[in-house]
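Q: Second attempt. The first request was missing the SMILES, so the protein and zinc ion are both included now.
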Amino acid sequence: MVTLSDPGSRRSIDMYLHQKFCFLADECAGDFLEKHRQVRITGTRSVTTPVGGTRLLPTEHMVFLLSESDDQDKKFLSDRFDESLSHVAAADVEEERSFAFLVKRLHVYVNDTSVEENACLVLWDEQIGLASLFRKGDWLAIWRPYVTVERQAGRDDKRSITLEYGSQTVIFVIPMDPTKEMELMCSMASQPSQHAVPRDAQGILDFKWYPNRLLITELAPKMINITIFGKVLEVIANMPFENEGIKVSRYGIRLTDESGYCDITLWDDIGQAATSNAFVGDWLLLEGLATTERVARGQPGKLVKKRFDVFGKVELGTKAWNVSSSTGFLCSPFLRNIMRVSAALAEKRHNFYCRAVISTWAEGKCGRTTISIHPRCNRPVETTDEAVLYCPFCAQFIEECKVTYTLRFVLDDATGCCEVDVGLGVAEDILAVTPSEFVRLALDEQREVLDAIIGKEIEGSIVRVYDHKDQTISFRLTAACVSGSSVQSTKTLIQNLAG
Ligand SMILES: [Zn+2]
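A: Got both inputs this time. The predicted holo structure:
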């Protein structure tokens, strides 16, 4: 029986050691298993013991980590792994001598022994899972592999050696770069379970299958396939990057979660798509992001800090989802919880859903009911003295613009009131008049359209927006649907079915 625990964590679990590893616990191996030996395991299962504890079942799919800097580990290697592949004689194999090799992992050929060079470590069936426990460039000390030597057809000077993971074989791993690996594992020690993240020959960590939520402070250099969920603190306008005459659009989003914040650079099409419907206070889910390696920052002579960048581009499969403005989310009683306005305000909720009546409407902050925006980025446009349209966000002159509403509502649900700026595209749904139709109406007709919504009950998604410059807090309605519509009837239907 061995006790396992994560580095930096107080939790531990007992595991039955597979009998093939028992020699490591014998006297001849000294305290091999006792001095915080690190192991990598796959393909094991847990069971509940009669007294209620959890234990892991024995598995052959276990490798032991050795350290090059540890004297005892070095002695362990030199005492036991003194053979080289070139000394393997066919006669020795026939005599069933046991071998122990120290080899560098280049590839693990699985069910493929057609390779001419080096030796192949062959893994069969369920053993294939073992390949995930060591990486390209790792050193492997292979204890008692099943060895075969074959002379290649027509070549007297060439032969191929095959090592198989047999019933007595034990693999010890000297990781390619143990310091980097420790960095990663320690930074995630706050989480109850830890997962190995594959790292390729260039040291890139792939988070594609990482099952836990990754927090911003856990980001490290050279990661790919990262998914982050957080609140938008700032949307940074296009700062095109020019290299050898080619101009590429570059946008930025400053995102925060409960652990911290980071700036994310979004290139070209995905940058434009993500920022066109992301506004301060919105909750965004970004997937397919990556980080660069560490790069020095700051001016010469001043403090130079080594940092890394977080970025997304189409080639990486980056996607952005705005959860706050998702009407699908709002309309699904299974996904959202309706809160009382008074409670949401008292709890200083960053994002909440409410059912409330529109008690009054007012013009937007600019003092008008509609504004012109750039259709590509959904940001207000400026008109120059020469009547040319300019988009400050995209940093370019533009030819077309479109009209959109800019309104403020007071929402009242009898427990409290909340004044909200009405977000992009939200007023259209409530007014049922498109902005382009609206601007063609006479002023009194416009007022009629707006007055008609007073008293209307809506379900809305609201975000709390903190303005860093003015240090003020405001609220924005990011999605809305009119109550008593299909949502209400669906809900009633579901309740009837459930009842
Ligand atoms: Zn624009």
